[in-house]
Amino acid sequence: MLVPDPKVVRQLLTRYATLRIAQAERQTAAVARELEDVTRRLCVTMGTAGVHDAIARADDLLARTRTDRRRSPEQDGESGLSLAV
């Protein structure tokens, strides 16, 4: 099974949350269309039929990614140092 890129998942979740806030503040057709598009992409990316399941799977994926990186960055070929160093 393919695992989505955590960076892409994080971007989709951020965009989804931003659009939900924008929709709550002021509903417009443009925001509604973009929210529908991001919702669909999030569901497809996470392999779900509903946004609530997609968000739950995305949260789980990101939590696993954080846990895996804390355990052993060297296993992924990383030194654990920031790129800014």
From TrEMBL:
Stretches the record annotates as Disordered: 63-85
Domain of life: Bacteria
Chain intervals with Basic and acidic residues compositional bias: 63-74
InterPro entries: DUF5133
Pfam family, one: DUF5133
Protein known as: DUF5133 domain-containing protein
Organism of origin: Streptomyces althioticus subsp. attaecolombicae
Lineage of origin: Bacteria, Bacillati, Actinomycetota, Actinomycetes, Kitasatosporales
